Amino acid sequence: MDRVIEPIALGLPARQTGLDLRLPSPVTELSDDRLDRAGIRLYLKRDDLISTEITGNKWRKLHHNLAAARSLGHDTLLTFGGAYSSHIRAVAAAGHYFGFASIGVIRGEEHLPLNASLSHAVERGMRLTYLDRTSYRRKSDPDVVSGLEARFGRFYLLPEGGSNALAVRGCAEIPGEIAASFDVICCPCGTGGTLAGIAAGLKPGQRAIGFSVLKGGRFLDPEVEALQRSAVGAWTQNWSVDYDFHFGGYARRTAELTDFIADFEQRHDLTLDWVYVAKMMFGVMTLAGNKEFEPGTSLVAVITGSAVPELR
Ligand SMILES: Cc1ncc(COP(=O)(O)O)c(C=O)c1O
Known about the structure:
Blueprint: E1 4-5, E2 21-22, E3 27-30, H1 33-38, E4 41-45, H2 56-71, E5 76-81, H3 86-98, E6 101-107, H4 116-123, E7 126-131, H5 133-137, H6 142-152, E8 156-158, H7 165-171, E9 184-189, H8 193-200, E10 207-212, H9 220-232, E11 239-242, H10 255-268, H11 277-289, E12 298-302
Parallel strand pairs: 4-12, 5-6, 5-8, 6-7, 9-10, 9-12, 10-11
Antiparallel strand pairs: 1-2, 3-4
Bound molecules: pyridoxal-5'-phosphate.
C-alpha cells in the first residue's frame, strides 16, 4: 500500500512541510507486446514518483547522509557537480527542506545568466562557487578540500553524483520494497552507486544489471566493487554492467534513442529521462528482443529519475 510520509517522520526537521515523499515508491507491471514475445514480465519501480524535487535515486542516496550530517552536528552541505547536475539541484532542495545551508562547487567557469538548473538551485538557497576544470579533477584531494574549508567553514561533504557508502545503503533499500518476485533488476549507471546498492539489497538467486550511460572501457566494474566493499564490506558478485547502450556517451543521444522515447511515451504514457532512464530501457528492450532472458524471467527496471527537459 502506498503511503505518503512527511520528512519529519525520518527524524529530520523539515523547514517546511512542502516535501511529500511517496515511499515505498509504486511498482507497476508494463504491458508490452515486445515483452510478451520474449515470454518475460517487466515491472517498473517508480522511484521517479518519490518526490518532484528530491526524486529517484537522489532521495535514496541522500537520506542517510542527511541523517548523518544532522547527527554529526553539521549545518552546511557541500557538494560538486556540472552546470546541469540534477544532484546539485537535489542537494539544494535537501538543504532547503531539512534546514541545512548548501554550497554547490560547479565545474568550470561561471556563466551568467545562470541556466535554469543552477537558478533552481540558487532559489533553493544554494550558494554557488566555481572550480576551474584542472582543480575540479582534484576536488577530492585534501588540499582542495581544506581550501574549501578555509573559505566556507565546516561542512558535510557529499561527493559528485552523491555516491558514497551511505548512498549505497540507501539504494540497497530498493529491492526490499518490491513485493513481486523477480529474477533480474536493472538500473542506469553513472557513478555506479545505485547499482552497487541495489545489488547489495538482493536475495540469493537474484541479479542486477546496470546500463552505463557513459562511453568507455569497463571502468565502472571496479568502481561498483569498491563502493560495495565500503558500504557493505563485500563485493556481492551478483551484478554486471552492460556498456553497449551509452548512445555516444554522457548527455549524448542519437535519433534512434529519441524515437524510442517517443514510441515508449505513446505506448505507456511515460516520458523517459533521456540522459539515464531511456538508455537503460532501450537496453532492457533490446536484450529482451534478442532473447537474452530465459522465457519466464521476471525483471524490474528502476525508474531512477524523471524527465525534466527544461532543466537539462
Ligand atoms: C536519473 C538518474 N539515474 C541514474 C543515475 C546514475 O546513478 P549512479 O551515479 O549511482 O550510477 C543518475 C545519476 O545520479 C540519475 O540522475
